[in-house]
Design brief:
The chain is mainly alpha-helical. The chain folds into two domains: 8-41 and 187-380; 48-158, abc type-2 transporter like fold, CATH 3.40.1710.10. 69% of the residues lie in helices and 6% in strands. It has 14 helices and four strands. The chain has helices spanning 2-18, 20-40, 59-70, 83-92, 105-111, 126-158, 184-215, 217-222, 228-256, 266-290, 294-310, 323-329, 333-347, 351-380; strands spanning 48-54, 74-78, 97-101, 117-121. It has a four-stranded mixed sheet with strand order 2-1-3-4, with helices on both faces. Helix 3 (59-70) links the parallel strand 1 and strand 2. The radius of gyration is 29 Å and the shape is elongated.
């Protein structure tokens, strides 16, 4: 039995590496997704283009400007003289934010009155706009705290009354766990592993079996002593090896090239990948039973992969989706593997936390593999 399976596996590797279309599927998606999501897709806001409209021109307003420039988040790209000029800069997209200090700013600060700072943000990209608005609010709030602290010291120095040593001093300090630098690359690159394994194993499995039908070699295989179960194992096993190779490749690229932290156990990641491969290989096997040509197999694989990708939580948080759609995502194996990969990479979580997701992958993998194998066996008969 194993000798026949070994020969099928050897034949599949030779055909896969020899066929140009199969080589493109094997090497194209991993390279493209790694480059795109590792370098091109970046949701971080660094050096946002800012227009500084100073209507006060005092040391206090210049101190606020130094807070923006020293944050590393903003770069002064223009210094308009009027509101109309600032509006034109926003309209043309030359700047992303306009910070306007109104006349009388220093006077209001010195008197302890409310001093207004107007922040106009280009909201075309809602994610970028929310980040810029948050950063600007933090800088203005920090400046306000510094001014208040200086005023309190001045009043205490001028007053003869002793300061109560037991007066409470409350400070809110935020700490960000798992991704302290808030780099979107740390969030996206581990998720690329999930999409690459799905695309490569799904398409390769479907195309390999459909190709046998197209060139007429499936009938020749069936007249040999090989049994259907041996043929199925010999067909899917090479692409399981390809999937595990992609796991190792992407993990190495994430650690060496992109410097993504890896805080978990590699064995947990490999075990989850094997469970996930059961589902993708089974789905490819099922697609091969409903397709007659390689073009049909490619289209069916895309039809399956696109909704699974959109509902996996890779780019769009599942909690932000409508409740009905959130319930649908529980039927998506990509959701569970996505949570496992990011948990292992960024949080360092293990089986004690990830066992529900791994159990769900095992259930889906076994169920889909059984149904696909039954249909595959029926079609061969």
């Amino acid at each position: 039995m194993w000798e026949r399976i070994r020969e099928i596996v050897r034949k599949e590797f030779r055909q896969t590496l020899r066929e140009p279309r199969m080589r493109a599927v094997l090497f194209g998606p991993p390279l493209i997704q790694l480059i795109v999501f590792g370098y091109a897709v970046n949701l971080d806001v660094e050096n946002a283009r800012m227009a500084w409209l100073d209507g006060d021109r005092t040391p206090e307003s210049r101190e606020l400007l130094s807070g923006f420039e020293g944050s590393g988040r903003f770069r002064v790209a223009a210094v308009p003289a009027t509101d109309e000029e600032a509006a034109r800069l926003l309209d043309r997209g030359d700047v992303q934010v306009v910070v306007s200090v109104l006349p009388g700013f220093a006077r209001d600060v010195a008197r302890g009155h409310t001093a207004a700072v107007e922040v106009l943000v280009d909201g075309t990209n809602s994610n970028t706009a929310s980040l810029i608005s948050s950063y600007a609010g933090d800088i203005v709030g920090r400046y306000s705290s510094q001014v208040l602290a200086r005023q309190m010291k001045t009043r205490q120095a001028a007053s003869a009354a002793p300061v109560n040593p037991r007066a409470p001093d409350l400070q809110a300090r935020s700490r960000i766990w798992f991704n302290p630098d808030l780099k979107s690359r740390n969030y996206f690159v581990p998720g690329v592993m999930v999409n690459i394994i799905m695309l490569v194993t799904l398409m390769l499995t479907a195309l390999a079996i459909v190709r046998e039908k197209e060139i007429g070699t499936m009938e020749q295989l069936m007249v040999t002593p090989i049994r259907p179960i041996e043929l199925m194992i010999g067909k899917v096993l090479p692409f399981a090896v390809v999937g595990l190779f992609d796991v190792a490749l992407i993990t190495t690229a994430a650690l060496v090239v992109f410097r993504i932290p890896f805080r978990g156990n590699a064995l947990v990641l490999v075990a989850a990948a094997v469970l996930f491969l059961l589902t993708t290989l089974a789905a490819g096997l099922f697609i091969s039973t409903i397709s007659h040509t390689q073009q049909q197999a490619m289209m069916a694989s895309t039809f399956f992969a696109l909704p699974a990708f959109m509902l996996s939580g890779f780019a769009f948080p599942i909690r932000n989706m409508p409740e009905v759609v959130q319930l649908v995502t529980y039927l998506n194996p990509l959701r569970y593997f996505m949570e496992i990969v990011r948990g292992v990479f960024l949080k360092g979580t293990g089986l004690a936390v990830l066992w529900p997701q791994m159990a769900a992958l095992a259930v889906y993998g076994v169920a889909v593999m059984y149904l696909s194998a039954a249909r595959f066996h029926k079609r061969l008969d």
